[in-house]
């Protein structure tokens, strides 16, 4: 957000607080943890929390005093789900992937230069990876789903994303330099799916395929993640093919939903 826009810093900080609350899901977050996670000072964090509570975006439990995502976020999420045409179909695809693989399956969406996990479903294999949870947010390229999205963009957009995230990658993701991610983009395009070999958290591997909107924009990615022993090369290709098939199925659903959506009424000409 541009620093020249009046109030931009306050909005940016409020969203930082809201995302920190959302990441904790049903566990909630206390003020001290929120201050650490957002790197805001305590008075600022508390003031922003009160503003978000007033708008229904955050709620505070009166017993534990922990903060949780509010009902208004649920309302907005439902509207966004209708707008992007994902909803139940994406959840069904993720559940199907978890059943077929026995491992954990995910759906992440693109948020400009970031990827945000929104759905997770666990299969029946007893040993699981817990790195990615709904609300987890990484720069594009970090993690299998995030890399699948980055690789599906055109070269100019890849360059923009890497440039905007360069400082964050250097500070917080030492395994993910821009030069490394350019090589991974090329490999992902060659394979047709992405692979993360434990670079976010050691021992937690993932395979993913990008999902496009009817207009061709990258809207998200489907991922299967497992412990290292479950994702050796042969199985990477097996699951990669499955993910690509399911991504195409989801894209077909989005195309049908878009075709059924009523066209906006044209504005009446003045004087008619």
In short:
This protein is an alpha+beta fold and 272 residues long. It has helices spanning 8-23, 31-38, 42-54, 71-84, 87-101, 144-152, 155-172, 178-191, 233-260, and strands spanning 58-60, 67-69, 104-111, 114-122, 137-139, 194-197, 204-212, 218-227. The chain folds into two domains: 8-74, Arc Repressor Mutant, subunit A (Orthogonal Bundle), CATH 1.10.10; 85-259, GAF domain (Beta-Lactamase), CATH 3.30.450.40.
Task: Explain how this protein is built.
The chain has 272 residues and is α+β, with helices and mostly antiparallel strands. It folds into two domains: 67 residues, Arc Repressor Mutant, subunit A (Orthogonal Bundle); 175 residues, Beta-Lactamase (2-Layer Sandwich). The chain contains nine helices and eight strands. Strands 5-4-3-8-7-6 form a six-stranded antiparallel sheet. Strands 1-2 form a two-stranded antiparallel sheet. The chain is globular, with a radius of gyration of 20 Å. The termini are far apart.
């Amino acid at each position: 957000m541009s620093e020249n826009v009046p109030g931009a810093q306050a909005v940016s900080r409020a969203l930082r607080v809201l995302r920190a609350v959302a990441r904790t899901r049903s566990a909630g977050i206390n003020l001290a943890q929120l201050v650490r996670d957002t790197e805001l000072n305590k008075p600022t964090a508390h003031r922003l929390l009160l503003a978000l509570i007033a708008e229904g975006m955050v709620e505070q439990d009166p017993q534990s005093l922990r903060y949780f995502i509010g009902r208004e976020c649920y309302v907005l999420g439902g509207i966004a789900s209708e707008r992007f045409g994902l909803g139940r179909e994406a959840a069904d695809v993720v559940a199907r992937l978890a059943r077929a693989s026995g491992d954990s399956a995910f759906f992440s969406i693109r948020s400009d230069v970031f990827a945000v996990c929104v759905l997770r479903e666990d299969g029946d294999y007893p040993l699981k990876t817990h790195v990615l949870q709904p609300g987890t947010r990484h720069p594009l390229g970090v993690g299998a789903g995030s890399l699948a999205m980055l690789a599906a963009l055109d070269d100019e957009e890849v360059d923009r994303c890497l440039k905007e995230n360069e400082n964050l990658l250097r500070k917080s993701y030492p395994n993910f330099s821009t030069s490394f991610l350019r090589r991974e983009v090329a490999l992902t395009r060659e394979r047709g799916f992405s692979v993360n070999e434990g670079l976010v958290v050691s021992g937690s591997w993932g395979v993913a395929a990008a999902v496009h909107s009817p207009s061709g924009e990258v809207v998200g990615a489907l991922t299967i993640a497992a412990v290292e022993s479950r994702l050796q090369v042969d199985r990477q290709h097996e699951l990669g093919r499955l993910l690509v098939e399911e991504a195409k199925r989801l894209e077909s659903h989005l195309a049908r939903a878009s075709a059924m959506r009523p066209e906006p009424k044209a504005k009446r000409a003045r004087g008619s």
